[in-house]
Amino acid sequence: MLRNPHSPPSILPLPAGVPRPLWSVMIPVYNCADFIPEALQSVLAQGIGEEQMQIEVVDDASTDADVEAIVKEIGGGRVCYYRQPENVGSLRNFETCINRARGRLVHLLHGDDRVKQGFYRKIALLFDKYPVAGAAFCRYNFIDKNGNRTHTNACEAQKDTILEDWFVQICKKQRIQYASMVVRREVYEHLGSFYGMAYAEDWEMWVRIARYYTIAYTPEILAEYRLLDNSMSNRMETSGQSLYLLLKSRALIQEHIVQENIPERIKKHIIAEGKKHCALYSIALASNIYKKTHNSLLAKEYIKTALHLSKKPYVVLRVLKFCLKFALIKFSAHSFIGITLLNHYT
Question: Which PANTHER family match (predicted)?
């Protein structure tokens, strides 16, 4: 079985007669034992009984601690535990989470993230208010390893609503983290699980869902996404692996855009805006890499990728600012950017 499936893995409907709570809070974990108690406590503090909420930790064969013992200690019998027989990778672990979920609403809460009081009550109200919604999400905070807020993501609307034109907006830029998103199980049954790459796979999923379903939203800040220096995504970024995966995710999203029944001019606009945002993200990654590792060759590859994706003036200006800030003369930045500008404006 491929760790990174090439197509969406199937999510099977539950057999008739299986008890169906409203909620399945599925907590995928791998070597994040220090944060699992906080994740579990944030869910248990909501005070929702097992008739209405399944809570289960799905462990991808962690090696950093006895995760089952942590679950028993914190959960007190309320939280179920399942361990993969071997490490299967994040995508297969998410697939296992969804297939094991019995609830009508599925929340994938990573073991190092948290929810705030009232998250499940509010999201349930959104689904009640907007029964056509296939998924719903809230605004969220970014937190550090100590649980302190670093910043808050942008607000998508000023009140509870069905987001208009959301497919267009989510195609342009990744705007949602797992901790804030809840999806109807039947949507996963229809569209399948996560696939393709273990980086930005969630962005492709949110685009896929938005293509076929309406999305509900609340501006209330009810989830917390933790940024860690040793996270898998951070390791991929500083090693350069994310460069290829970023382009792959962009290509998958572009396929959704091309196949959608919308005017060609709108498709071209979405693709161009998406490339611009990916270019800006590549520049941000280059800056992060150079600050942390001083790996100028890898930073250069991210900068080259940014200019390959987009040569819009704002992108070129950001590249110039990056080169000036870090004085990367070894990049031959003056000739590199000069040629780019010349090609773009002549």
Answer: GLYCOSYLTRANSFERASE, UDP-GLCNAC:BETAGAL BETA-1,3-N-ACETYLGLUCOSAMINYLTRANSFERASE-LIKE PROTEIN 1
- The 8 Å CB, 24+ separation contacts for 330-335 are 330/296, 331/296, 331/300, 331/303
Query: At the fourth CATH level, which superfamily is domain 23-228?
Result: Spore Coat Polysaccharide Biosynthesis Protein SpsA; Chain A (3.90.550.10)
Q: Which one-letter DSSP state was computed for residue 344?
A: H
Task: Quote the CA–CA distance of 129 and 170 in Å, as a whole number.
Answer: 22
Q: How many contiguous H segments (helices) and E segments (strands) does the chain have?
A: 13, 10
Domain residue limits, the chain: 23-228, 233-345
State the Cα–Cα distance between residues 186 and 15, nearest whole angstrom. Answer: 13
Task: Classify residue 199 by burial, with Cβ atoms within 10 Å: 0-12, 13-18, 19+.
Answer: buried
pTM over cut 0.85 = yes
pLDDT tens sequence across 280-315 = 999 999 998 888 888 888 888 899 999 999 999 999
